[in-house]
Amino acid sequence: MSVTAEQQVWVRQARAQSALSKLFDWKPFLVVMCMLPAVGLLAVFLTYPLGLGIWLAFTDTTIGRSGRWVGLENFEYMLEDPIWWNAVFFSVFYTGVATIGKFGLGLWLALLLNNHLPFKSMLRAIILLPWIVPTVLTAIAFWWIYNPQFSIISWMFIELGLRDTNIDFINTAWPARWSLIGANIWRGIPFVAISLLAGLQTISPSLYEAALLDGSTGWQRFRYITFPMLLPILAIVMTFSIIFTFTDFQLVYAITRGGPVNSTHLLATLAFQRGIPGGQLGEGAAIAVSMIPFLVFATLFSYFALARRKWQQGESND
Amino acid sequence: MSATTEPQQTNAATAQPETMTWDSRSRRMVTIYVPLVCFLIILLFPFYWMTITAFKPNAELYDYGRHNPFWISSPTLDHIRLLLFGTAYPRWLMTTMIVSVCATVLSLLSSTLAAYAIQRLRYKGSQYVGLAIYLAYLVPPSILFIPLATMVFQLGLFDSPMALILVYPTFLIPFCTWLLIGYFKSIPFELEECALIDGATRLQILWQITLPLAVPGLISAGIFSFTLSWNEFIYALAFIQSSENKTVPVAILTELVTGDVYQWGALMAGSLLGSLPVAIFYSFFVDYYVSSLTGAVKE
Fold first, then answer.
1. For A194, which of B167, B249, B293 is closest by C-beta distance?
2. Which of A81, A112, B208, B221 sits at a 20 to 30 Å CA gap from B173?
3. Residue of A46, A138, A256 best to disrupt the B interface, most CBs of B under 10 A
4. What is the largest CA-CA distance in chain B?
């Protein structure tokens, strides 16, 4: 949509411009000036560190001493390290179970909210709250809820006569893993539910009317209308969710610190422990870099497994 | 299970109206309201528990035998008092506020210019630049914090809030740019064409026409950035060492837990106070949150 040449000439004659404003009207310069702050910040503090991190993984850098190139030594050490293998296992397990939980419950909640309800906007506001509040602070609340001695959940179970001893939430490996997954699901439900609700609201009611006329059951309407129409959004939200669950740090760091006996370390918390308090930056960087293949795989998988349907159906959902 | 609102298909000839309405109403109760209430209770319980713990005297806190744990018989402000006058909590709040505000302003400025250039100036390859910025959001901080820690150290910014102000935009800019591109799209470009014909410069157009129209988008991006900065943990944990420069989330976890003595009341009071600014902010702008979240998904 450009102005015709004749008009441009007329504009230039109409006002004498200062050299500076002329410079700013020269498009290449303007574009560079506009892009510079954002691109500059991202290049210096995101792209460069990403490369630097990969380079560090091949050195034996420690805090306060720049490292020598040691080739694959860090990775060899990592592959022989049972703690790293356990962190890989737990990261995959945590991501898998928490994602299934989050999306199952989040979808259910979104479907519930998609009805005609009183106080709908207030409900939405309340439901988003867990996602808004700082993760670490809710993690501390969960830490208190899971307290071995004063756990409110244990107390309720005992009062109801379901158990006669306290539940050991975080001092043995498997209960600790499940406790962390529970906290992660709790935190993830609101985001998934509100995002999917937005998707549900874009589905045209006429589709449901047509299905009703054809005598469909509720399950069929969900299976053949709601779910396929939600897939594109589901793919995007799930990709995000998987990436941020796999690289999660805060919940584990706040509730168990990777314990008991390193059983609940995620790759991110293990990288932190080796790199920052442990001072082995090279080793920490190698562990952090080892997350990248998993992330790429998970992203491609979730994106293609879900989003491919979109063009098979030959219609977009926007 | 489905939750569509259409009444069940009944044979209209035989069903009486009353039974039909009663039936669908009770069904609605069971399939919609009961699960919804369960969801609400579970989602809100940790907040309730946090609040109630923050105001409980220690005698009640550690004695479930004689006190119902779900209620407070004699609320106390001791934990809050300890937090505000016995620790550096006000200082931590201040630091967090400064870091969040500065990082937000820096990100908004950069994102607005970038989004405008990508969406309106339409230079060669602008979509690819937009895509690259968007992809930057997918690089998790857990991968970046170790190399960033070495950089921060070499720049002499270790243990200074400045390090956080410079690093936070890495996850704020992609988000804001993406949000603002969507917003600029919704502003009719004919307005800008008219201004161009009238001889306005590009900067004048941005300043006098586009930005005033984009204010709701800017508010959305601003509150989101503020919230994300306030909640950030891993960078603040890795780059800040001394107690007085810590941000609230890090300080509560590292400064209030000393040895084996957990001051649960003070910990919960700290979590509660640390959540309040964000929650208050949120309650004022809740529609912006929901719309930017859903708008972002729709894009």
1. B293
2. B208
3. A46
4. 82
Determine contact, residues A73/A67, Cβ cutoff 8 Å.
Answer: no
CA–CA separation, B152 and B163 (whole Å)? 7
Tell me, yes or no, if B99 comes closer than 8 A to chain A by beta carbon. Answer: no
Q: Which helix (H) or strand (E) holds B262?
A: strand B261-262
Residues of A in contact with B53 (CB under 8 A): 144
Q: In terms of Cα–Cα distance, which of B253, B38, B49, B149 is closest to A254?
A: B253
B89-102: average pLDDT: 95
What is the reported pLDDT for B7? 44
Closest partner residue to B298 (CB to CB) among A33, A155, A198 is A198
Interface touch B47/A133, C-beta < 8 Å = yes
Quick: pLDDT tens for A76-96: 999 999 999 999 999 999 999
DSSP A68: P
Q: Is B146's CB within 8 Å of A212's CB?
A: no
pTM, full prediction: 0.86
Contact predicate B201/B183, CB 8 Å: no
| Alpha carbon distance B14, A190 (integer Å) | 43
In a mutational test of the A interface, the residue from B146, B186, B197 whose CB has the highest number of chain A CBs within 10 Å is B146
- Angle among Cα B237, B176, B245 to the nearest 5 degrees reads 25
Dihedral, CA atoms, B180, B186, B187, B190, nearest 10 degrees?
130
Least confident range of A128-137, A295-304, B164-173, B195-204:
A295-304
B164 touches chain A (CB under 8 A): no
Q: What is the DSSP letter of A18?
A: P
Taking residues A270-292, report their average pLDDT. 93
Place of tokens 């158990």: A163
Residue A190: the pLDDT is 94
Residue B214 near residue B245 (C-beta atoms within 8 A):
no
- Encode burial over A168-190: b for 16+ CB neighbours within 10 A, e otherwise: ebbeebeebbebbbbbbbbbbbb
Q: Over chain B, what is the mean pLDDT?
A: 85
